Amino acid sequence: MSAFLPSDRQRDIYIRGSRGIKPELPVDFRTLEEKAKKKLSRDAFGYIACGAGQEDGIRNNLKAFSSYSLIPSMASGLSSVDTGIELLGKSLPFPVLFAPIGVLSLAHPRGDLELASASDETRVPMIFSNQASYPMEETAKEIHSGPYWFQLYFSKSKDLVDSLVHRAESCGCSALVLTLDTTTLGWRVQDLNHGYLPFIRGLGIAQYTSDPVFKDLMADIDLSNQDSGGFSIKKLMLAHDLMKNYPGAYWNNWRTKDPIRAVRKFIEIYSRPELSWEDVCWLKSRTRLPLILKGILRPDDALRGLDAGADAIVVSNHGGRQVDRVISSLDALPVIRKQLPTDFPLLLDSGIRTGSDIFTALALGANAVLVGRPYVYAMALKGKAGVVEWMGNLLAELEITMKLTGCCKISEIHPGLVIRK
């Protein structure tokens, strides 16, 4: 495997450009998103891009980053920089992780596997999604260099939660990320206008359909008195999608109707609206892995998480997908940072688009960041190669920003290098 060197990225683009070869993958996020929109189906793009309500949460994330200016320090004598960090006992070459995003098969047929392979090449850790299109065991086989984590949604079935946690431990995950902010789906207007939820079509539920406990739970679903409501082409197409997307032989799936049972059971137990801090404490007692809490936006919740045994916190508003008009993750970050011990790991998710965004988040107190939608668009356009290329661009900009602001290593990035406009 060739070395992944973001520092060479800018030079390579210009050299290739001198030969008349321009980048196939747009370097800026806006053009990347527009190009992906043209390639993806309306429903797929809507699901990936949408936010809650009028999508003010998405705009708040972007406005927060643009509200900060950087203050470079000159004549620092830097020919190279060190972007490495220590996080939860692991050495990482960059302060960046791939955020967990569900139903990556909407962007690419091999979505999770393509991302895992890109993670392996770039050495940027991947967080396996609870709503993946491939089981975690298959995805783990694609990664040979560096750690990977598992994201968990707390189901109504604690037996299922236990099983997922055990599988994450067994397949080599080095941390567990509990997402707190999705105890019910947000009011996502684009998806509602399209009448589209991929899970109903059997997409994004591979962690469930590969789980022995979930398979036992499926047996509770009684299909004997289901109301067919008459025949229609759309119902037939939905059934076809279900049978095709479910593991196993297509015609056998028609015979057993297991895909229908799986979707119904998933919808029944997917989230736990009554999730409490007692549940978080219970989860901590059930795993040997470091427990990371994702979705914290308030300092009092951060302190409760600390009391519940969290080993790290991800400040996140779920990319603006859960609550409309939600505070930006970046605005929440420094307030939470002040309330926690200085050595407590704090990560920032939601709104990262550029290397200077990463720099700003690190300056305001994050130890690392999660990146989401941009890599999905890159995957939609060029698969694994697109993800690797886009990550190279992102990290190259981070390195250049560090050089031009006088920071030799990540620990030298501090609040005095940014100012609020």
Main sheet attributes: strand count, strand direction, barrel closure: 8 strands, parallel
Instruction: Summarize the amount of helix as a percent range.
Output: 40-55%
**Assembly annotation:** single chain
CATH topology: TIM Barrel
* Unreliable residue stretches: none
Number of helices: 18
Structural class by secondary-structure content: alpha/beta
From the N-terminal CA to the C-terminal CA, the straight-line distance is: 44 Å
User: Which sequence of strands runs across the widest sheet?
Assistant: 4-11-10-9-8-7-6-5
Shape, per Cα inertia axes: globular
Instruction: Return the CATH class.
Output: Alpha Beta
Number of domains: 1
CATH architecture: Alpha-Beta Barrel
Could you give the order of the helices and strands?
HHHHEEEEHEHEHEHHHHHHHEHEHEHEHE
Give the total of beta strands: 12
Fraction of residues in β-strands: 5-15%
- How large is the radius of gyration? 22 Å
Mean pLDDT: 94
CATH superfamily: Aldolase class I
What do these coordinates show?
The protein is α/β, with parallel strands linked by helices and 421 residues long. It has one domain: TIM Barrel (Alpha-Beta Barrel). Helices cover 45% and strands 11% of the residues. It is built from 18 helices and 12 strands. An 8-stranded parallel sheet has the order 4-11-10-9-8-7-6-5. Helix 17 crosses helix 18. It is globular, with a radius of gyration of 22 Å. It starts with 8 loop residues before the first helix and ends with a strand. The mean pLDDT is 94.
